[in-house]
Amino acid sequence: MKLKFYKKFLDKKKYRIYLASKRDSKSILNFIDKFWKKNHIFVKSKKLFKFQHQSGKKLNWVLAKNVSSGKLEGVLGLVSKNFFANGKICKKDDIWIAIIMVAYPLKPSKGLGTEMIKYFHRKFKPSSISAIGINKNVANLYKKLGLKIGYVIQYYLKNKKNSFYKNKSSNLKITKNIKKIKSYKYFDQKFKHYQYFSNRYFKHPIYDYFLCILYEKKLIKNFFILRKIKYGKKVALRIVDLGNIKFLNKFKKENFEYLVNYFRANHIDFLNYGIKKEFFKKIGLSLRKKNVFIPHNFEPFKKKNKDVMIAYKSDNKNFYVFKGDSDLDRPALL
Question: What is the reported pTM?
Answer without folding.
Answer: 0.95
